[in-house]
Amino acid sequence: MDLGLRGKIALVSASSKGLGRAIAEELAAEGANLVLCSRGEDALRQTAVSIRKSAGVTVVDVPADVSDGAGIERVTKTALDKFGKVDILVTNSGGPPSGSFESFTPENWEKATRLLLMSAVGLSRAVLLGMKERGWGRILNVTSIAVKQPIEGLMLSNSLRAAVTGFARTLANEVARFNVTVNNILPGYTRTDRVEDLARATSEKTGTSTAEAFAKWEREIPMGRLGDPREFAALAAFLASERASYITGSSIAVDGGWVRALL
Question: What span, in angstroms and rounded, lies between the C-alpha atoms of 156 and 198?
């Protein structure tokens, strides 16, 4: 299937590893040129070199923290200066710490809001005008299955990823007539560093091993296993494509059946 992505320009945040890197690799395999950013400069550079070699596309790497307005400005300005446009925006970031409501200070909430919500808002604001003027654009927000079924102990993530969902669903209606789609992709338990961190936090809280934490999650997943980042990235590439032109305002889980809700 030709997804029609050859020559498109994609900006993928938090893309040095994990789900962001998998999405970047999948888009590059379809012929999209990339602007990548993350806080870890060395890992980001290695990812960019690897994708250039494997896919033969142009890859620009920009060290930037998208929880900071200056970081958002730096990466979006670099993308527009280099390519003159951004066709596909993938908003993604690391997750905030786990914990209960009483364990977090107002400063924790403010930091998490900048990381999860305001990064998506700021990146979208920077590229949306150009998408509307050209009459084509794709905005994909990487959120979490927690927006459909809250996960115990993830107070910050449950709350603020739900806020991203509300933002995206509203924006989707505002920009649909410009042939710009806005969708959310909800990763379930997937083999990433973030899930490794959650396993360690769970083991410390419960006094069990990380292996037991993984085994518990696998028992909860109808498919009986954790996901692979490439399985998640395949949906991202499709939603970014010409073929997905009539899909907008959706929140789609890639979770092996973990979410038990009907919708």
Answer: 14
